[in-house]
Amino acid sequence: MAKDKKFVEEITPRSEDFAQWYTDVVKKAELMQYSSLKGFMIYKPLGYAIWENIQKNMDAMFKETGVENVYMPLLMPESLLKKEAEHVEGFAPEVAWVTQGGIQPLQERLAIRPTSETLFCDLYSTIVQSYRDLPKVYNQWCSVVRWEKTTRPFLRSSEFLWQEGHTAHATAEEAEARTIQMLNVYADFCEKYLAIPVIKGRKTDKEKFAGAEATYTIETLMHDGKALQSGTSHNFGDGFARAYGIQYTDKNNQLRYVHQTSWGVSTRLIGAIIMVHGDDSGLVLPPRIAPVQIVIVPVMQQKEGVLEKAEELRQQLQKAGFSVKLDDSEKSPGWKFAEAEMRGIPLRIEVGPKDIEKEQVVMVRRDNRKKVFVPMRELTERAEQLLEQEQEDMLARAKDFLNSHISDAHTYEEFKDAVANRPGFIRGMWCGDEACEDRIKEDTTATSRCMPFDEDTIDDKCVCCGKPAHRLVYWGKAY
Amino acid sequence: MAKDKKFVEEITPRSEDFAQWYTDVVKKAELMQYSSLKGFMIYKPLGYAIWENIQKNMDAMFKETGVENVYMPLLMPESLLKKEAEHVEGFAPEVAWVTQGGIQPLQERLAIRPTSETLFCDLYSTIVQSYRDLPKVYNQWCSVVRWEKTTRPFLRSSEFLWQEGHTAHATAEEAEARTIQMLNVYADFCEKYLAIPVIKGRKTDKEKFAGAEATYTIETLMHDGKALQSGTSHNFGDGFARAYGIQYTDKNNQLRYVHQTSWGVSTRLIGAIIMVHGDDSGLVLPPRIAPVQIVIVPVMQQKEGVLEKAEELRQQLQKAGFSVKLDDSEKSPGWKFAEAEMRGIPLRIEVGPKDIEKEQVVMVRRDNRKKVFVPMRELTERAEQLLEQEQEDMLARAKDFLNSHISDAHTYEEFKDAVANRPGFIRGMWCGDEACEDRIKEDTTATSRCMPFDEDTIDDKCVCCGKPAHRLVYWGKAY
């Protein structure tokens, strides 16, 4: 047991130093590691498998709404990136530039995509002619590069994996509807698969995307009380269409500009899973997204019949559709338990000689570590029940945590007190003046996270300047 | 019907100009288009969906053999790329270089990965310490950049999509076994999913991968008689391990170098599908890889009940697990037929008022265009039968084509005559001297494709120089 303890002891307790705990979990659960190039990460098998499951399930949701996947070039000429002024201004400081291809220096330098708005615009300008060609609802899964000075696994790095959807529509209404539709897909996905509740809302102009008319966001709350922007959906109006000349003839043969949207989520979602659900024993993965849902640990596996029975159970569970692993390595059971907990496997099944005699197994949920004895004949039904309940409980706990970490502030004193003493979101009215956002950020480091949908006002004065205000804002410190 | 004819007439007949036919199919079937950056392609929805299906099915085959997916950085420092001399020599002329990140020029220039051997070596040198850490069997799906002067959709471009597997093993035997295992996975995949038979064999030293001890290949034959290298698997021995310092301690506590392999296939496979199966009406997709397997075309769709019945059939087929599309657009049925053929949809179902009256539908296979009347109550069974038969027939036809396009040459005169007059592979003995390969290439443009497994010799003299020879080589013009 000494060894097992050591395994766990290598993680800093979450309450002691959240940032160090996060780094420890990423490392010990073998999710990711730094490469020899600063800011560039290596997604290891478990980290990448989580991303694959996110992709698979979200992509199915996309396709149900009519999304088609494409793949656009990695590089774009500088002149193409520069066509939309606000957009290039937003991204230029972060772009990696290619200046030589093969043995020849290039005549024009090329940007590695920091995002692909400009490439999609270029494509749409060539393939959209008539209203019959609309809408175009394309998406791609790829990596993008944005040169970052400070990096943190999954949350901020110079290269990251994401999806970026880019659409073109005949009307402003249709574009707005698609923007909201995709935000809702993100919100539903987070709740259903990741067991993470979200706050949906609109970004202030200060926080919106470079070149967008409106940016909508899902904001999630980490266990340390900091917010994580977890997905965004942008309505571009016809701004890009005008810059890139994307026009179509409508039914009356009139030439019109298209209206565009874009929307994306990234591997930040893996950061959210870690920071919402993880505990002092490591990762806790929601069953619906876990690459391995069940681990079987044989106890006294050298005894006759134990490994055979464990393998029989593994096959039975696999046949029933679970992703299951039998850990028949030479480590001690305690070590295997600790390792499986570190890697967040939702359900552990123990089986030893005594269990076999009694025709039972032990099932232990990862989230609450509750042990139950289950007759072998009920193996698959009970595994399914426990995993479903675990998924449900994880969401319920995350919802409770979120709801108990939202506080209202009516005055600036209350606001500053909340930022200092009550981790989480702070609801406060805002007059609409960017100066108040700036002041709040300077005084407290909190930023406006979003103006929520469907919420009443809680006051009629700006929480910062006291002037009349009718916009409710969720504020918070954020990653 | 005039319109429908026009739709098809835009393709050059395959027999008239194969290269132009290929380009026309790629364009008219909307598989891909050029971006505004020379050499960089846009994978459109149909082209990308075929790649997604290749990925999905091949990835499942990989995982059955124990492969784990990871994601490695897009960029690597020049010093890292340069550690293995032969390797860097092979790739340096094709590398795209990043010299600026954000607003700062970089101190060391960075290569966009042309392949990721060096990154995996760097990783393995940090995570492999003991024999217990072996084997490592990692793979990634990504894009790579190799600056090309001439480009051709799917076959050659400056950026392309692929997978690259990289493994590290304790022994030379295990590495060799993995190299051959993955080549067999590729061969099986091509036969089973793409209905494309392959020739398996080993590359000569002249044609092997930069830095490899041995390169194995699957070679396929296109309809114009040219060969396409469709997948390769390399055994690196311990060469990279020595250059990058990848060592482990064995069971006897001895420090040893690992033995490595790498293996890859790319979107070239899509080129192979087009050029093996396509015809003068466009693409012909094998049912197991087709993004849409069945298209339903309503006839006289304005008549009451036709669209409703068509939709009912669509749902029935979808429920049975087929990927099915109902084309209820306002185009004429003839136009829809031509479009569905162009896009290679394996099975077309027509249903009109008379069919509804007779409770039947018309089913038309894409490959042979045979029409059958099918009672509606047998809809799903017959669709399945027809698709299975089509998949089988496509493979059988491709096999016949391959076998009837292999000729033997015993003298150099016979060889030159075969290259000039008999499209396909030429089997000829080789003495092992690179000078003969060079001469053959210069005289005929044919190259050594591979030294096949499990084949007898057909002569005892080199087909080029006449000296003693005991190696049989498949020669051919190639893409």
UniProtKB/TrEMBL annotation, chains A, B:
GO terms for biological process: prolyl-tRNA aminoacylation. It catalyses: tRNA(Pro) + L-proline + ATP = L-prolyl-tRNA(Pro) + AMP + diphosphate. It comes from the Bacteria. Residues 47-286 form the Aminoacyl-transfer RNA synthetases class-II family profile domain. InterPro entries: aa-tRNA-synt_IIb, aa-tRNA-synth_II, aa-tRNA-synth_II/BPL/LPL, Anticodon-bd, Anticodon-bd_dom_sf, Pro-tRNA-ligase_IIa, Pro-tRNA-ligase_IIa_arc-type, Pro-tRNA_ligase_II_C. One of its GO terms (molecular function) is transferase activity. SMART domains: ProRS-C_1. Belongs to the class-II aminoacyl-tRNA synthetase family. ProS type 3 subfamily. Catalyzes the attachment of proline to tRNA(Pro) in a two-step reaction: proline is first activated by ATP to form Pro-AMP and then transferred to the acceptor end of tRNA(Pro). This is Proline--tRNA ligase. It comes from Shuttleworthella satelles DSM 14600. The gene is proS.
